[in-house]
Amino acid sequence: MTAKLIKGTEIREEILNEIEEDVKKIKASHDRVPGLVTILIGENPASISYVTLKIKTANRLGFHEIQDNQPEDVSEADLLALIDTYNSDDSINGILVQLPLPKHIDEKKVLNAIDPDKDVDGFHPVNVGRLMIGGDAVKFPPCTPAGIQEMIIRSGVETSGAEVVVVGRSNIVGKPIANMMVQKGPGANSTVTIVHTRTKDLAAHCKRADILIVAAGVPGLVKPEWIKPGACVIDVGVNRVGEKISEKTGKKIAILRGDVDFEAAKEIAGSITPVPGGVGPMTITMLMKNTLKSFKFQLGIA
Ligand code: NAD
Which of 7, 106, 246, 290 is the most buried if burial means most Cβ atoms within 10 Å? Predict the structure, then answer.
């Protein structure tokens, strides 16, 4: 069997086009656009490249975008005061503080200072609680899990009554996606198992999964014999396993591998996400979707 490829790059385009259309319509009716601020502290190259991509996407969608760069030695008090300014700025619907932060700043304190109604990353404890409650309580699902669920829905995989196994229990992927899949509603209603480093028989659990979501950060962890024939396999892992020269640019680029042995797994699974080009492109897309949602809440049209 050769599995159907679930391509994040294609689904991203679909969703971004929908957001773009929505933004145009609301601009015409309300003469306003969603506002997003990205706060970048210091000059970490990976953070710069993530923020640059977020800004580029926000600009493409016609958002009002503020890039607020702060020096590496900005004090915690000044950063908290800056967040407070954006909390009370009506033109801003989403506040994004790029992580990781320098060591002298308490990350938890900073994330908790963001107004939960502008926390488009969905990391604030209030939004984690809303996600746990489910249904109408959810405002901003965290972006990577939201992207995973969207991919499952848009590729037509049945989730109701499905056995979902999530490998990994992190706060940003494993726990929230497990929580989302168990809720009532479309793209959910599943029976969910979370497995992790202390799980006794990882293979046996994975083998039962109709939908296997893997977010462990271990290249090739999931072997083909752990996959139930016809299952949907979502590989969240992004692992740098070496470097190569890009054919397009001639520059050195990372060789990326997922947490699943893709080449063998695609012969057994019914559908599967590639790495790169699978879950990766969905995260920023869902960040934009959350920002639009926040804007609609503000206008009372959500
Ligand atoms: P994490 O390190 O915080 O959590 C990994 C989890 O996997 C842990 O709960 C751990 O118990 C479990 N785990 C690790 N090794 C295991 C093993 N051998 N057996 C069973 N369980 C094991 O990682 P994270 O932040 O959740 O990210 C996981 C992977 O997903 C990483 O490769 C990361 O780069 C990737 N990721 C991708 C995106 C994206 O594509 N947008 C976003 C977030 C994370």
Answer: 290
Average confidence score pLDDT of the chain: 97
Q: List the structure tokens of 136.
A: 């109408």
What is the tens place of the pLDDT at every residue in 57-87? 999 999 999 999 999 999 999 999 999 999 9
Is 228 catalytic? The answer is no
Ligand 1: centre distance to CA 228 (Å): 21
| Predicted pLDDT at 99 | 94
Q: List pLDDT tens digits, range 89-101.
A: 999 999 999 999 9
78 C-alpha to center of ligand 1: Å?
32
Q: List pLDDT tens digits, range 189-205.
A: 999 999 999 999 999 99
- What's the token pair of residue 302? 């959500």
Question: Among residues 118, 119, 121, 261, which one is catalytic?
Answer: 121
| pLDDT tens string 236-261 | 999 999 999 998 899 899 999 999 99
State the distance from the centre of ligand 1 to the C-alpha of 259, rounded, in angstroms: 9
Supply the residue whose CA is at minimum distance from atom 18 of ligand 1. Answer: 197
